[in-house]
Design a protein that fits this description.
This protein is an alpha/beta fold and about 270 residues long. The chain is built from twelve helices and eight strands. Helix 3 packs across helix 4 and helix 8 crosses helix 9.
């Protein structure tokens, strides 16, 4: 099946490149369009055979189309595709704020949402999927088999999307910030500890902790219990964190949900 990608930015560019590198897509079956021609020219240079196209051509040529532009830009892209889309096509948007019902009312094809993660750069991590009412089980299998080469596809409902996106697509940035701030505060607490060493210590520890979870099948509760001996320094640190961290996460999830609701209310496809 010809597969089209509209928007070769941060996530769209990552998605098409990883799928091509994995071998699940052949360059000659890929059609790519981007507002700036430079990015799509570089893609075609890196993967000879990729077709450089516009949105209208992709709508006419491809059975599976990924629209990897912001919710605000989606209306322009859809207008460029008018007259070429047809019911048997699969149209997948990466714009979380676009309601599937709104997209179904705008186009004749079967629609879904994909929220990828930067972890797909290494062929790992969760790719969230949400399906419109016209998506069949066969369609789901096709899309999940494709994405299964670079991720662990997980289907969710739109109602649980915002916190799930925070845990997966946003998760790498949030976790990276926590590790960075932990290392930075340790340096500020002791001038003899260099920033480079502090970050090496925290990164190696974080990587090993993830291995305990995935390879040793330890739970987070078990790790906490085994490390934080009663009355010890780690137990004290956890007590302090428990007074502040939950409230911070509450604010994070509340504010991001409020922002998404405002974005959704302003949309017009």
């Amino acid at each position: 099946m010809n597969t089209g990608f509209i928007g070769i930015g941060s996530m769209g560019g990552m998605l098409v490149r990883v799928l091509l590198r994995s071998g699940v897509l052949s360059p000659q079956d890929v059609w790519a369009a981007n507002r700036s021609p430079v990015k799509v020219d570089v893609l075609a240079s890196d993967f000879p055979g990729v077709h450089i196209a516009n949105a209208n051509q992709i709508a006419a040529k491809c059975g599976l189309i990924f629209i990897c532009v912001s919710a605000a830009d989606a209306s322009v892209v859809l207008a460029q595709m008018d007259g070429e889309l047809y019911p048997d096509q699969l149209l997948v948007t990466t714009a979380a704020a676009i309601p599937l019902r709104m997209l179904e009312n705008r186009v004749p094809c079967r629609v879904a949402k994909l929220i990828p993660s930067i972890t797909q750069e290494i062929g790992a991590g969760i790719a969230l999927l949400m399906y419109g009412t016209r998506f069949t089980q066969e369609d789901r299998n096709q899309l999940e088999n494709l994405l299964g080469h670079i991720s662990k596809p997980v289907a969710i409902t739109e109602s649980m999307a915002r916190p799930a996106i925070g845990l997966t697509s946003g998760g790498p940035a949030l976790l990276a910030y926590l590790l960075q701030s932990m290392a930075d505060e340790a340096v500020r607490n002791n001038a003899e500890l260099s920033p480079g060493l502090a970050r090496e210590l925290v990164q190696e520890t974080a990587g090993a902790t993830m291995r305990l979870l995935s390879e040793a099948n330890m739970t987070t509760d078990e790790i906490i219990r085994r490390v934080a001996a009663p009355g010890g320094m780690t137990a004290l640190a956890l007590e302090i964190l428990s007074q502040h961290v939950p409230q911070a996460w509450q604010t994070v999830f509340r504010k991001t949900r409020e922002r998404e609701i405002k974005t959704r209310e302003s949309l017009a496809l």
